[in-house]
Design a protein that fits this description.
mainly beta, Lipocalin, six-stranded antiparallel barrel
C-alpha cells in the first residue's frame, strides 16, 4: 500500500513539473535597418545660424559657442544632418583690436548633437574666405587729406579728392549677432553612423 501511494505521489509530481515547465518562446527578430556609415569629406559646408551673440569685446579664448543647422543636409536620398541639429564649439584664437586693425577670432566646432540627443565629435571651423579668421580688417583712417586731381582734357581744371591719411584709428571689436547665417567647414572627414529615419 505504501509503495502504491509512493508511486502515485511520484507520478503526480512528475506531471506537475511538466505542466509547470517554462513556455517555449518564439524566435522574435526585430526589424533593424542596416545602414553603412556615411562619410562627409573634409571641405564640406554645413549652413548654420549663430544661437547667441559672440563678441571679442566680452568673450575670451575657450568661450563656448553654439550654432544651429538651418536646413536638412542630404547625401543622395539619405538625410544625414537634420534641420535643428546643434553644433558646439569654442573660440580657438582671439586677437584684440589694435591701432590700424580690428579685433578678430577663429571659432572651432568640436561636437554635433542631433535632435534626438545623439552626439558625434567632429572638427570644423566657422568659414571665412580669410583662412577662417572672423574680423581683423583694417580700421578707419584717422584723417582724410584733400588732394587735387587734374583733368587731362580740361587743362587748368582740377577736382578735389579725399585720400586716407597715413595714421589709422584704434580698431573696433568684432561681433557676430545671434541669428547670423554662417557656414561650418569640415577640416577632417566626419563619419556619421547614426541616421534618423523620421
Amino acid at each position: 500500500m505504501k509503495r502504491a501511494l509512493l508511486c502515485v505521489l511520484i507520478l503526480t509530481c512528475l506531471c506537475g513539473v511538466q505542466a509547470y515547465s517554462a513556455p517555449q518562446l518564439e524566435n522574435i527578430q526585430l526589424d533593424i535597418r542596416e545602414a553603412d556609415p556615411v562619410e562627409l569629406n573634409a571641405g564640406t559646408f554645413i549652413p548654420v545660424i549663430s544661437a547667441q551673440e559672440i563678441s571679442t569685446q566680452y568673450c575670451s579664448e575657450g568661450y563656448k559657442v553654439r550654432f544651429i543647422a538651418t536646413t536638412d543636409l542630404f547625401m543622395y536620398e539619405t538625410k544625414i544632418i537634420p534641420e535643428n541639429t546643434l553644433f558646439e564649439g569654442y573660440i580657438e584664437k582671439m586677437n584684440e583690436p589694435v591701432i590700424g586693425t580690428n579685433a578678430s577670432m577663429i571659432i572651432r566646432i568640436s561636437k554635433m548633437i542631433l535632435p534626438d540627443g545623439y552626439e558625434l565629435p567632429m572638427k570644423g571651423y566657422i568659414y571665412t574666405s580669410n583662412n577662417n579668421l572672423i574680423g581683423g580688417g583694417v580700421s578707419e583712417p584717422e584723417n582724410w587729406i584733400r588732394m587735387p586731381h587734374y583733368q587731362h582734357k580740361l587743362k587748368g581744371t582740377a577736382t578735389l579728392q579725399l585720400k586716407p591719411g597715413e595714421k589709422k584709428k584704434m580698431g573696433e571689436h568684432t561681433t557676430l549677432p545671434a541669428g547670423l547665417d554662417l557656414l561650418i567647414i569640415l577640416t577632417e572627414p566626419l563619419e556619421i553612423t547614426h541616421i534618423l529615419t523620421n
